[in-house]
Automatic annotation (TrEMBL):
<dbReference type="InterPro" id="IPR011059">
    <property type="entry name" value="Metal-dep_hydrolase_composite"/>
</dbReference>
<keyword id="KW-0862">Zinc</keyword>
<comment type="function">
    <text>Catalyzes the hydrolytic deamination of guanine, producing xanthine and ammonia.</text>
</comment>
<dbReference type="Pfam" id="PF01979">
    <property type="entry name" value="Amidohydro_1"/>
</dbReference>
<keyword id="KW-0378">Hydrolase</keyword>
<comment type="pathway">
    <text>Purine metabolism; guanine degradation; xanthine from guanine: step 1/1.</text>
</comment>
<dbReference type="GO" id="GO:0008892">
    <property type="term" value="F:guanine deaminase activity"/>
</dbReference>
<dbReference type="GO" id="GO:0008270">
    <property type="term" value="F:zinc ion binding"/>
</dbReference>
<dbReference type="InterPro" id="IPR051607">
    <property type="entry name" value="Metallo-dep_hydrolases"/>
</dbReference>
<protein>
    <recommendedName>
        <fullName>Guanine deaminase</fullName>
        <ecNumber>3.5.4.3</ecNumber>
    </recommendedName>
</protein>
<dbReference type="GO" id="GO:0006147">
    <property type="term" value="P:guanine catabolic process"/>
</dbReference>
<feature type="domain" description="Amidohydrolase-related">
    <location>
        <begin position="68"/>
        <end position="427"/>
    </location>
</feature>
<dbReference type="GO" id="GO:0005829">
    <property type="term" value="C:cytosol"/>
</dbReference>
<dbReference type="InterPro" id="IPR032466">
    <property type="entry name" value="Metal_Hydrolase"/>
</dbReference>
<keyword id="KW-0479">Metal-binding</keyword>
<comment type="similarity">
    <text>Belongs to the metallo-dependent hydrolases superfamily. ATZ/TRZ family.</text>
</comment>
<dbReference type="InterPro" id="IPR006680">
    <property type="entry name" value="Amidohydro-rel"/>
</dbReference>
Length: 436
């Protein structure tokens, strides 16, 4: 077995919004031991009690003064946009035309796609993210490249080829029929292979013809358990455009609903400009929201109402949305979400933040029986945080009085320097710990 020792923190339930987490929602061991066999958690307990019971043939990773948590999950990002993060000055629709589509055109070269997929997986792991729901480009080989890179690293990964047949450069457009057969071929090739899952991925209503959205809806019907991912109500110009493209639809969500794309396990990125009625239809159908705070600030899209979504029981995850998002770091994503929550008058607690990155995002992807916590049987994807991992964190760590403060420091000041190590299925990916 593989054994990780050190301070351990995980969530077994939603801690709620209070300064004090809901009873029984958080488990913290200041000298804990996590036992992993065949890539899964078999035991978690206090070092004092457990260590003496373990067999001789263990590989021990000792992380004193660090914080061992379930690997972070990112439920919305674009792997093709890694190199266009922080492109100046435009809102969504101009930003897509000016920066995003030209970059995505480079993925017509399979060698480039492979190179970027490898870089992307390395970068994600370097930032402590072990599972993600990813948009590839419209080129099917971009999805092949990402799945291959994830498979070789043993990661649980969900992704799909973008379906897009209009209002984009011709070189990026497929057709309804091509999107259909390319998606089906990718499903055949990758869905359920190792830890990989295919996701049906129409980019958003403006870049698909009604015929193509119908094809996507048919796919969603043929694979009822499969994730559908798209974008919804991010930007006012986008919303007006959808209204003119689909004059018969009641609203933007209705465009998706009419073709069967609003259903359980449909993930809608952004959902900034929505009302109670739309939230209610999302909640009823089991649709989920990917909240992308750094992206929403960067593109000037607006402030997502996380509290209202919670009140109306719409399952919500928190995501980087690279490359409109400004960092792959899910710690940086929390910092932005905190600042937005302050503007809205109810500061997000670090309990909520770290619950969301782990078990909350797992639940939002319907993966909470596999990842997101350290309950025995869970797949052992782990991030080891360093609460003193940068000069600023180190200063704060010296004064930190309790776990709440340590977590809040990481959430506000953390970046890749705060990621000490990552284990995927128990295996170290990047580590400075000594194995013995
Ligand atoms: N809407 C449609 N495509 C995109 C994209 O690539 N990024 C963001 N932020 N919004 C989108
Ligand atoms: Fe996006």
């Amino acid at each position: 077995p593989v054994v990780l020792r050190g301070p351990v923190l995980h969530f077994t339930a939603d801690p709620g919004e209070d300064i004090t987490p809901a009873p029984g929602s958080v488990e913290y061991l200041d000298d804990g031991v996590l036992v992993i066999e065949n890539g899964r958690v078999t035991r978690l307990g206090a070092a004092e009690a457990l260590l003496s019971e373990l067999p001789e043939n263990i590989t021990l990773y000792h992380y004193p003064d660090k914080l061992i948590m379930p690997g972070f999950i990112d439920p919305h990002l674009h792997f093709s946009q890694l190199d266009i993060i922080a492109s100046y000055g435009r809102q969504l629709l101009d930003w897509l035309n000016e920066y995003t589509f030209p970059e995505e055109m480079r993925f017509s070269d399979p060698a480039y796609a492979t190179h970027m997929a490898e870089d992307f997986m390395d970068e994600m792991l370097r930032y402590g993210t072990t599972t993600a729901l990813v948009f590839c480009t419209s080129h099917p080989h971009s999805a092949d490249a990402l799945f291959e890179a994830a498979r070789r690293r043993g990661c649980r990964m969900l992704a799909g080829k973008v379906m897009m047949d209009r209002n984009a450069p011709a070189a990026l457009c497929d057709t309804p029929a091509r999107a259909d057969h390319e998606s089906r071929a990718l499903i055949e090739r990758w869905h359920g292979v190792d830890r990989l899952e295919y996701a049906i991925t129409p980019r958003f209503a403006p870049t698909s013809s009604p015929e193509q959205l119908n094809i996507a809806g048919r796919l969603a019907q043929d694979f009822p358990d499969m994730i559908v991912q798209t974008h919804l109500s991010e930007n006012q110009g986008e919303i007006d455009w959808v209204a003119s493209l689909y004059p018969l639809a009641r609203d933007y969500l209705d465009v998706y609903d009419q073709v069967g794309l609003l259903r359980d396990r449909s993930v809608f990125a952004h959902c900034i400009h929505i009302d109670d009625d739309i939230r209610q239809r999302l909640a009823r159908a089991g649709g989920r929201i990917a909240y992308c705070p750094t992206s929403n600030l960067f593109l000037g899209s607006g402030l997502f109402d996380a509290r209202r979504a919670r009140e109306q029981q719409v399952m919500t995850g928190i995501a980087s949305d690279i490359g409109a998002g400004t960092s792959l770091s899910q710690l940086a994503t929390l910092a932005a979400a905190y600042q937005i929550s302050q503007l809205q008058g109810h500061p997000m607690t670090p309990w909520q933040g770290f619950y969301q990155l782990t078990r909350g995002n797992a639940r939002m992807l319907s993966l909470d029986s596999r990842i997101g916590s350290f309950v025995p049987g869970m797949e052992a994807d782990v991030v080891v945080l360093d609460p003193a991992g940068s000069p600023a964190l180190s200063r704060k760590a010296a004064r930190s009085k309790n776990l709440f403060e340590t977590l809040f420091n990481l959430m506000m000041l953390g970046d890749d320097r705060a990621i000490h190590a990552v284990h995927v299925q128990g295996r170290p990916m990047t580590t400075s710990a000594v194995s013995r």
